[in-house]
Amino acid sequence: MEIRYFAWLRERIGTGHEQIETQAQTVAELIEDLKTKSEAHAFALADTAAIRAAVDQELVAFDAPITGAKEVAFFPPMTGG
Amino acid sequence: MGVEVCDRAFDPGSILSAFTQRVDCAGAIVTFTGITRDVAEGDLQAMEIEHYPGMTERALADIRTQAMDRFNLIDALIIHRHGCLSPGETIMMVATAAPHRRDAFEAADFLMDYLKSRAPFWKREITARGADWVVAKDEDEEALNRW
Fold first, then answer.
1. Which of B71, B77, B101 has the alpha carbon at shortest distance from B12?
2. pLDDT greater than 90 at residue A32
3. What is the pLDDT of residue B23?
4. How far apart are CA A66 and CA B7, in angstroms?
5. N or C: at which end does chain B have fewer Cβ atoms within 10 angstroms?
6. Distance, CA of B90 to CA of A70 (rounded, Å)
7. Does A19 touch chain B (CB under 8 A)?
8. Max CA-CA distance within chain B?
9. DSSP state of B86
10. Contact B116 A78 (CB under 8 A)
């Protein structure tokens, strides 16, 4: 599965994307899984209130399933306009 | 046509002219243009806008479709830049065309509220002190409850 990071999440983790194998069933479980990868992951993903997620480029809640997803992205709340 | 994500400057006037010529039977056209402003106490050097290629275009198309479904519109347009902008440059614009002004105004307002909180763009201000990500405001999220 392709994991993508944007804005300060990308900077804190040190990469914009990575490939991972996971048994996680939901976005929330995936976050817990990713936090075990490195200190940078744990730091970047610590405050879930400051994170939004997209599964296959659709904004979702953290209880959303990720089974079969190609791409999951994490980023801060958007600031467009 | 309808949504565009671009990495270079655009001329809102010529886009509005083309939009106006394209729509038939519009009694009202409303536009909003967003400008890079200096919120960093007078020392903003540049604004960097990051986006999520692919998702951005989908999100903008979805927001536009929602506006078309919700209001009595003839057409709607969203243009948003990414990359590095100088203070005073145009970041984005929306345009709506409707038979009557109320729909055109409200649809433009709706587009802006959704664009601020649902389109995957992130701004970073570059100043002499360094670079800081712009933090989303609670009221931007709350603004969606109006609709």
1. B77
2. yes
3. 94
4. 32
5. N
6. 35
7. no
8. 51
9. -
10. yes
